[in-house]
Write a structure and sequence with these properties.
about 200 residues; single chain; 12 strands; seven-stranded mixed sheet; 6 helices; three-stranded mixed sheet; globular; alpha/beta
């Protein structure tokens, strides 16, 4: 089977780190900014950054609606931090005009773990990731307030949900791309491969 092609939404945030992590997890990784580029990928990562900015730029670049459509069609997507917020069906405290792509039946709280100067690292046991706990980097991170019946909770930290999956959509509050541990990206690449196999 050919190597899956996975895009990283390159509007804002830590795009380069995700491209490196995906390549290390045996995917072909490329930046994605325009609607026509969405048609050329098998999966997509939405990086951390500032969720309000990513939302506005997605609308400006004309990718918001095509992204929603592809997620509805079953495109595998993985969001970290701000990417988790973008994949939530509902934000508890949205900024004015802030939109999401949706895809996971959950309610998220923005900046729930505190501001930039309260960033921290913590070991997180993530269901589906074998071996030692994942080192989670939490930077102005959200947490999940609640999930729907179809949403699988993969990890918690300090009593709060920090990793979830619903079908082909995966999200984490933390940034595994900043640690050199590519197992979460490997989990997502496996999801993309499985989706390709099911579709063929």
């Amino acid at each position: 089977m050919s190597t899956p092609v996975i895009g990283v939404l390159a509007l804002q945030g830590d795009v380069r780190e995700h491209l490196i992590a995906l390549a290390a997890a045996d995917a072909v990784a490329r930046p994605v900014r325009r609607p026509e580029e969405l048609a050329e990928i098998d999966g997509l990562v939405i990086p951390g950054g500032e969720s309000t900015t990513i939302s506005k730029l997605a609308v400006l670049f004309g990718v918001m609606e095509p992204l929603r459509e592809r997620v509805r069609e079953g495109l595998p997507v993985y969001g970290t931090c701000a990417g988790m917020i973008m994949l939530a069906d509902k934000i508890l405290d949205p900024r004015s005009g802030q939109e999401t792509i949706g895809g996971i039946d959950m309610i998220v709280r923005r900046n729930a773990f505190g501001r930039q100067n309260e960033s921290f690292e913590a070991a997180v046991d993530v269901e589906g990731v074998e071996g030692d706990p994942v080192e989670g980097v939490f930077i102005r991170a959200p947490w999940v307030e609640s999930v729907g019946a179809e949403t699988e909770v993969l990890a918690e930290h300090s009593g709060h949900i920090v990793a979830v999956r619903q079908g082909n959509v995966l999200a984490t509050s933390f940034h595994p791309e900043l640690t050199g541990d590519h197992r979460v990206h490997g989990l997502f690449v496996d999801m993309v491969r499985a989706n390709r196999t099911a579709a063929s």
